[in-house]
Amino acid sequence: MIDNPSNWAGNYSYRAARRLEPETLEQIQELVHRGSKFKALGTRHSFNDIADSPGDLISLKHFNKIISLDREHRTVTVEAGVRYGELAHWLHAEGFALHNLASLPHISVAGACATATHGSGDRHGNLATAVTALEMVRADGEVIMLSPEADEDFYGAVVGLGAIGIVTKLTLNISPNFQMQQDVYENLQLSQLENHYNELTSSAYSVSLFTDWSNAVINQVWVKQLVEDEVTIKAHPELFGARLATRNLHPIANLSAENCTEQMGVSGPWFERLPHFRLEFTPSSGEELQSEYILPRQHAFAAFQVIHGLRERIAPLLLISEVRTIAADQLWMSPSYGQDCVAIHFTWKQDWQSVKQVLPLIEEGLAQFDARPHWGKLFTMQSEHLQSLYGRLPEFRQLIQKYDPLGKFQNEFLDTYLFKRM
After folding, report:
1. What whole-number percentage of the chain has pLDDT above 70?
2. Is 132 in the same domain as 258?
3. What is the per-residue pLDDT across 169-190, written as a single tens digit (0 to 9) for each?
4. What is the DSSP string of 218-241?
């Protein structure tokens, strides 16, 4: 038991009385059955209080085993605390792959799925879309299994925000191994995205844009392509006017690329190309803040214009911004529910007093596009407006009441953004 841990970035200290570290499923059941308030805690990559509790935190650090591989049905079952980077190494050795990974391979499977964390790609849903079954401890201490074939609650429970139980095990869809290469282009004019954004993002498996919004230029374009039969694809010297980089780059120009995944068209396994950062390195000092807004993809360029119009307020506080695409899904509380999306991510300097003055300006500008904030990152949006963005929220509230009638898994964040009436 360790008291008062902070999150990965150090911007939030958990206020829960204790952090408990059970080692067995039975221990979790006993804790939940006898206690009154709990939240599950993974790798602590959320930037807000979504994972905090007025009671105790149940750490899943000991639930880090890969349980089974079903080659016939192409699924893998893991404990909730497994990190994506570790799972990826293991799957690759077995000849399989995940459909996508987030920028950081350091995050836990359960935490990423519960908050609809995503990778990039026009045809690829967020990480939670790979889930085909989950095991969960309910508020009464009982263990249940949910799957789309057997349970109508499944699509509400996967992106569960920690609100309906302690997820202890997940089964994920997998695919055969594949190879990728990564090329980076520099200095893409923002104006090129008005007519070519969809063409650009559909040109590869995954495309990420990095910019500091200081001018009308996208600093870097990271292009991740599938490699067939280990034949490297010769990258074009230009991409809509952007020039092919001649060296490995970090998204933040003045930082070393040592901790970034391999670039320069060198082919390699999927798990060494899909993330931007390598598992064996800490991607940064962690002294940063993050925000992200997800909106319908058809509004992408108009949203870029809004952000560009705020550049004088944004750029001085920003380390870097990343823009990615996400495919539509069926998960009730996913920001990509029912719509193909573009995500505009901001990595801020750790100056919350200044950042929280800018976020309302961004949110006001993007409100016309029904932009939804990432559940695990920083935002200032009024709860009434956020609730209006989720058509399945009434059903999700009913799901919470069904599995947690006494509110054992509720906290201030959930009370505010799921239940508060303005």
Report:
1. 97
2. no
3. 999 999 999 999 999 999 999 9
4. EEEEEEEEEESTT-PPPPPSEETT
Report the percent of the chain where pLDDT is more than 90.
86
What is the predicted pLDDT for the residue at 420?
80
Together in a domain, 353 and 209: yes
**Residue 153 and residue 399 in contact, taking contact as beta carbons nearer than 8 Å:** yes
Say which amino acid occupies 204. Answer: A
Distance of alpha carbon 11 from alpha carbon 169, whole angstroms: 29
CATH number of the domain residue 100 falls in? 3.30.465.10
CATH code at position 262:
3.30.70.2520
User: Could you tell me the residue range of the domain that residue 140 belongs to?
Assistant: 66-176
Q: Per residue in 110-149, pLDDT tens?
A: 999 999 999 999 999 999 999 999 999 999 999 999 999 9
Is the domain of 158 the same as that of 294? Answer: no
**DSSP classification of residue 361:** H
Q: Which two tokens stand for residue 114?
A: 């519960």
Nearest to 48 by CA among 385, 273, 359: 359
State the Cα–Cα distance between residues 3 and 217, nearest whole angstrom.
46
Domain count across the chain: 2
Phi/psi for 225 (5° steps) reads -120, 150
